[in-house]
Amino acid sequence: RLKQLQSQINPHFFYNCFSFITSMAKLKNMEAVIGMSHNLSRYYRYTTRQERDLVPLAEELEFVTHYLEIQNMRMSRLQYSVSVPQHMRRLEIPPLLLQPLVENAVLHGIEREAAAGIVRISGFSSGREMTLTVEDDGRGMMPEEIAEIETKLGKAMDEEMGCGLWNVHQRMRLRFGGDAGLSFAPSPLGGLLVQLKWVQAAGGTEDILE
Hints:
Elements: H1 2-6, H2 11-26, H3 30-48, E1 55-56, H4 57-74, E2 79-83, H5 86-89, E3 92-93, H6 98-110, E4 118-126, E5 129-136, H7 143-153, H8 163-176, E6 181-186, E7 192-199, H9 206-209
Parallel strand pairs: 2-4
Antiparallel strand pairs: 1-3, 4-5, 5-7, 6-7
Helix pairs in contact: 2-3, 3-4, 4-6
């Protein structure tokens, strides 16, 4: 399933990045060319060289930051923040969990609303219960749409929903148990809030969680 997710390189995203590089080169804006190339190389290095079952959350956050930097260069109204405590950043999670959530926030929340432009990534813990949230100020979802997508996450993959969210939800449940996974709610920012929850197993993590 991880290999399946890694193979879902969005050609539209890829072409847009190279179109940006070409345009900036024609304008002789070498700083923009270098910036985009740097973030793009880091982004694809992470996706194509990922052989580990678990990675530090800090690496996953760095990865999605490269993605957001790329999108910010293409779409200047995009602003983002990452607020995750240090003890959570040292936790290990399956790789490529946050990127589909962040990508959905950008593509379905921000790009479709001309007035939108905020993506916020947060993390908090209560004992061994861990929560990561990705939210935006975009168009959001109606309650019936949220209920429908949460129902679909527990069933066989629905092509209309796409494999990204389903893949994340199923891999979290396989790794951390049936109570782990995704949930959705309206965001105080005005768009959608996606929560990724799990219970960190006891043993070997006491020093991390202190």
